[in-house]
Amino acid sequence: MAGLFITIEGVEGAGKSTQIQMLLKRLVGIGVPALVSKEPGGTPLGRELRTLLLSPHASGEKWCPESELLLFYADRAQHIATVIRPALEAGRLILVDRFEDSTRAYQGAQGIPEATMDKLGEVVLGRLRPHMTLVLDMEPAESLERVRVRNAAAGETFKETRFDNETLEFHTRVRKRFLAIAQRDSQRVALVPADRTPEEVHEAIWAHLTPLLRSSGHPVE
Ligand code: TYD
User: Fold this and answer.
1) How many Cα atoms occupy the beta-carbon half-sphere of 146 within 13 Å?
2) 58 in a domain, yes or no?
3) 3-state DSSP helix/strand/coil % of the chain, to nearest 5
4) Which CATH number fits the domain that encloses residue 16?
5) CB 69 within 8 A of CB 111
6) From the CA of 214, how far away is ligand 1's center (Å)?
7) Measured between alpha carbons, how far is 36 from 21 in angstroms, rounded to an integer?
8) Which residues form the pocket of ligand 1, taking CB atoms under 6 Å from any ligand atom?
9) Atom number of ligand 1 nearest to Cα 53
10) Res 205 pLDDT > 80
11) pLDDT averaged over the chain?
12) Domain range enclosing 139
């Protein structure tokens, strides 16, 4: 069986983590050799980059957008080399929580030109592309409210707030970029309305995925 590379994208609070766990359980349940990873932080070194990227620094210094961009790509290069490619070569299905489209959406919304990401993407990804990308779509006003409730419940220990603290206007631009990616690359990207129950969103994702699973020789009843 061929390896499969699936990415899940969307604005904060759209329910990616819940959906990834539901999907993993179903895939493993039917015997697909699936594993889950994420960006930033899918490797031990990447987890250090994740802290550097998302937690406020004691000095109060903030990354300039270009440094931030390079760190996301450094995390990705390491992740591809040590986790994604080996999984695909072993014929596994790897499900990744955020990938290149998050860079295009978030760093794009911060003003990094598309051409810059094209160049860096060429270095870091080469010809690697996800077989399928699921964009969980919902109104940022609604999804950010979910994040606010989640963060409040996590209390003071919740430190990864880098983009959670951005304005609604910023997240609206991020969403627009995800929508544009889905429209431009409709062969690869499936847009999944996420303002539904977790079960409904899961069934929509499953419906998108089953033809790909079947055509890759994975057993789907
Ligand atoms: P994550 O913690 O997975 O976000 P969430 O839990 O909201 O899904 O992702 C961390 C943050 O990093 C998120 O705000 C999006 C941002 N990000 C980028 O800005 N660029 C990137 O390339 C990636 C992978 C993530």
Assistant:
1) 15
2) yes
3) 55, 15, 30
4) 3.40.50.300
5) no
6) 31
7) 8
8) 12, 16, 38-40, 54, 72, 97-98, 102-103, 106-107, 160, 163
9) 12
10) yes
11) 93
12) 4-215
- pLDDT, residue 165, reads 73
The conformation of residue 105, written as its DSSP 8-state character, comes to I
| CA–CA gap between residue 91 and residue 212 (Å, rounded) | 14
- The phi and psi torsions of 202 (rounded to 5 degrees) equal -60, -45
Residue 166 domain flag = yes
C-alpha of residue 97 to centroid of ligand 1, in Å: 9
Higher-confidence residue of 14 and 5: namely 5
Domain membership of residue 118 (yes or no) is yes
pTM: 0.94
Is 185 domain-assigned?
Answer: yes
Residue 95: per-residue pLDDT: 98
Burial class (CB in 10 A: 0-12, 13-18, 19+), 139: middle
Q: How many domains does the chain have?
A: 1
Cα–Cα distances in angstroms (integers) from residue 201 to residues 97, 186, 191, 194, in the given order? 16, 19, 11, 6
What are the tens digits of pLDDT across the range 32-85?
Answer: 999 999 999 999 999 999 999 999 999 999 999 999 999 999 999 999 999 999
147-195 confidence digits (pLDDT tens):
888 888 877 555 566 787 788 999 999 999 999 999 999 999 999 999 9
Q: What pLDDT is recorded for position 156?
A: 53
